[in-house]
Each structure stands twice: as C-alpha cells, then as structure tokens.
C-alpha cells in the first residue's frame, strides 16, 4: 500500500491563536505609540505642537494609502459613517492636548497620566451608556484617581499646565475608546483609522494655521516617520481589540511606562520620580481590575441558569 502523503497544515491552522495575536498587536501598538510620543516631544522643541499634529494626521493618509488601495471599496464601507465625524472631532482635541502636554511635561509623567483613560471610559459608560457598576468597581475607580493625586500631589507640589492637559487628553481619548470598541464590531481597523485621519486632518490644519511654520526637508522626514508610527499603533490597537478580550490585552499596555522611561532617559535625560511610578502603577492596576470585573460580569451573565 502506498504511503499516504503528509498532510500540509492549512494557513489558518498555522496562524497563532487569536489571544496571542491580540497580545502581539498590543505589544506593537505600545512600542509604536511610545516611539511616536518621544519623537513628538523632540519635534515640539522645533515646531509648534499644533503644526506637528497637523502633519501627523495628514501623513497618516499617505501611510494608509497602500492598505486602502489593497482593500478597495471595502476600506470605505462603514456601518456608522456619521459616528466617525464625532469621534474624529474628539480625537483631534485629545491629540492637540496631548501634543501640548508632551512639549512641556516629562514623557513618563504624561504616559502615567494617560493610564487614567480607562477610568474615564468606565465613568463614561456609567453616565452615557447606563452601565451598572457595583461597589468593587467604584472602589477601583476611586483608587485609580487616588493614583492620579499621587502623581500630581496637589497642595504639596504645583500642578502645572502640562499634567492638566494630559488628563484632559486622557478623558477625551476615553470617549474615543468607547466609540472605537463599538465601531470595531462592524468596521475594519483600516476603515476606523482611515476615517479618523480624514476628519482630523482639516481640523488640525485650522488649529495650526495661526502658528504656521513650514518644516524643512529633514523635519518633514521625521514627521512622516512619526505619522507612520502613529498609524501603525492605531491599526494595531484596533486589531488587538478585535482579536482578543480587553482583559487579556490591557495588562500589556503597562509597557508604555517602561518604554517612556527608557526613551525619556536616553533621549532627554529625564528620570521619573518615585511618585510617578507609584501613581502610574496604582492607576494601571485599578484599570486592569475594572477590565477583569467587567469581563467576569459578562461571563456570568452568559451562564445558563438552572
């Protein structure tokens, strides 16, 4: 009898599990975002933050072009096209606040304060989506904001404009995250990122015009690189949410503080103080707990009753 040919694994079987793919996409997102943030901090020393923000968004369209051409008309199809306008406006203000904060605040401190975004997102879900939250999650939210106070230490240290801008950016980004999570159920990661760039580019230009300075060729090249990193981060983040549950991928977001510390020290000689690390860890731990509780509540709700 002739030996049966060896079965060749299908491409689908060769792919890593969805959970692993979600984690890998989150790792890519954190590395890309923090490299971009470090680059923004450098460029805002040469150009106004609003000018940097405009080129970050307009170059995103150039970076996305190959993916859009590959997908064809599918890249433009959205179940909720009007929602992209609202999210794009929110994203624009959040981005401008973040870029301003980066121009005057240490990289690690901005990153630590950005961890409050999931706390704001939970509050947004309670206030606007009618989500019910029990005592333990309320305590986690309160603990997270205590971590914010540890970083800012109001009354013991002057609370500067930079940290306040970073918190404003985090709150607005939280609203955007709620919308992205809903959009990712029906729209592709490319579609979400494409519409974001289309809406944000003209809005960022309007804000940049009063401070306009033309970048030189070297600066344009750096700005294009930053936009490439940001676009990769946006796509990877959206894909991470599609591949795995938030509770699985969210803990790896803490790597951003490690990247920020390493890049801040290497590039700018910044050494975050102990309060930034303590407060950032408290905030992050509370957000992970909230995500875990939300997932557990959803699982319990799906269990059959006897």
Structure description:
The protein is mostly helical and 306 residues long. The chain has one domain (17-300). The chain is 76% helix and 0% strand. It is built from 13 helices and no strands. The radius of gyration is 21 Å and the shape is globular.
Work out the radius of gyration: 21 Å
The ordered string of helix (H) and strand (E) elements is HHHHHHHHHHHHH
Q: Globular, elongated, flat, extended or rod-shaped: what is the shape?
A: globular
Structural class: mainly alpha
Roughly what percent helix? over 70%
Number of helices: 13
Secondary structure: elements and pairs:
Layout: H1 11-14, H2 18-43, H3 49-71, H4 81-104, H5 107-114, H6 117-128, H7 135-152, H8 161-183, H9 189-208, H10 217-243, H11 246-249, H12 255-268, H13 274-302
Q: Which descriptors would you attach to this protein?
A:
single chain, 306 residues, mainly alpha, globular, disordered N terminus
Q: Could you give a quick summary of the protein structure above?
A:
With 306 residues, the protein is mostly helical.
């Amino acid at each position: 009898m002739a030996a049966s040919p060896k079965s060749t694994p299908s491409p689908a079987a060769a792919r890593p599990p969805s959970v692993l793919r979600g984690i890998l996409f989150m790792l890519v997102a954190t590395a890309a975002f923090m490299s971009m943030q470090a680059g923004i901090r450098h460029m805002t020393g040469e150009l106004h933050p609003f000018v940097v923000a405009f080129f970050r968004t307009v170059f995103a369209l150039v970076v996305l072009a190959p993916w859009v051409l590959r997908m064809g008309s599918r890249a433009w199809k959205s179940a909720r096209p009007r929602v992209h306008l609202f999210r794009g406006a929110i994203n624009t203000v959040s981005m401008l606040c973040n870029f301003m904060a980066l121009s005057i605040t240490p990289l690690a401190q901005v990153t630590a304060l950005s961890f409050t975004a999931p706390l704001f997102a939970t509050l947004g879900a309670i206030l606007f989506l009618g989500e019910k939250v029990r005592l333990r999650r309320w305590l986690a939210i309160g603990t997270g904001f205590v971590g914010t106070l540890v970083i800012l230490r109001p009354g013991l240290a002057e609370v500067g404009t930079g940290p306040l801008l970073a918190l404003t950016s985090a709150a607005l980004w939280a609203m955007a995250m709620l919308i992205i999570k809903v959009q990712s159920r029906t729209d592709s990661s490319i579609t979400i990122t494409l519409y974001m760039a289309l809406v944000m580019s003209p809005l960022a230009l309007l804000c940049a015009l009063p401070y306009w300075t033309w970048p030189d060729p070297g600066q344009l090249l750096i700005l294009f690189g930053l936009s490439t990193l940001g676009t990769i981060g946006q796509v990877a983040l959206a894909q991470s949410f599609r591949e795995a549950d938030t509770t699985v991928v969210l803990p790896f977001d803490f790597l951003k503080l490690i990247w920020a510390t390493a890049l801040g020290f290497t590039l700018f000689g910044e050494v975050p103080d102990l309060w930034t690390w303590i407060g950032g860890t408290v905030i992050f731990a509370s957000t992970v707990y909230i995500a875990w509780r939300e997932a557990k509540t959803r699982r319990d709700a799906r269990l059959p009753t006897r």
